[in-house]
Specification:
The chain is an alpha/beta fold and 356 residues long. The chain has two domains: 59 residues, Orthogonal Bundle (DNA polymerase, domain 1), CATH 1.10.150; 274 residues, TIM Barrel. The chain has a ten-stranded mixed β-sheet, covered by helices on one side. The chain has a two-stranded parallel ribbon with strand order 1-2. The chain has a two-stranded antiparallel ribbon with strand order 7-8. α1 crosses α2, α5 crosses α6 and α11 packs parallel to α12. The chain is globular and about 70 Å long.
Amino acid sequence: MTDKINLLGQTLPQLQTLCADMGFPRFTAKQLCDWLYKKRIDSIDAMSNLSLAQRAKLNETAYIGRSHPVNCQVSRDGTKKYLFQVWNAEERGHSHVEAVYIPENKISEIRAQSPDSSRATLCISCQVGCKMGCSFCVTGQQGFHGSLTAGDILNQIFSIPECEQLTNIVFMGMGEPMDNLDAVLDACAVLTSDWGLAWSPKRITVSSVGIIPGLKRFLDECQCHLAISLHNPVPQERLEIMPMQKAYPLAEVLALLRHYDWSGQRRLSFEYTMFRGMNDDLAHAQRLTELLRGLDCRVNLIRFHSSPGTPFQTSTPTTIKNFQEYLNRHGVTCTLRASRGEDIDAACGLLAGKER
């Protein structure tokens, strides 16, 4: 594996340091950002406003880590699952991660005249596998095999054919963002800074099971939306399916979240996967309502997507509807997330990063 520096994923301050070390003028860093993130070139030789000597020196010490996906599966609903090969420094070899492209206009016949009909979301990964060990998640059950760099994260965005069509990014693929926070924050900085893509932070949502130290830093340093994986409001029951409940109890996570203002542009949501007979009765809905009372947030219900060997089953449509209506009646905004890409194992909790 090369010891060269991957320019993709470098922030403006990081590029300024690099340019200083190489004896380049300070403004060269801004030029690099322009080529990398606005013009989105994939070759140092294409940086035509740098001198030949500068380009030669850059080629000696750096590269642009753009790589095409090695596979793409297309669902009958238009969802696409891309497989990327990444260098796994922790295991000294190559691994694979997945990203899922979700175009809303492909299901316009289901949601006629939907205000989100032009929305195009990419669900990206930040780790190979995951340490969190959630028992209902295929990614969590495969264990942890390494963290991605900011360049690896951004490559999932820049190297798909639909890159220019994207309206939203969600860090809800493989891995726990708060367990790879430096790389996630750098990627978000590239996406939202004026020297980068200059996206509004409102277009990006970062998920977490609630690792409190990382969560606090994220909330202090980033304005992107936050989604907390909740899945059960009863502490002992949550612990049975989410081991991180022991180290970072949901009550402490919620106490931290209440210190922040959610009435502005940054949105707080809670992800709640519906498991038949486990967390889907009205007693759980009542407990969840009490837990979130006074917190400006929304709850996204997710139909459980089964995989081979899992003991869980999804709740019935009627049960999900009753649960959703209870929350809405009692002051908690609740929506049901549309299930996408299940036929290609691209739905929530099914990403495994397997080469096919």
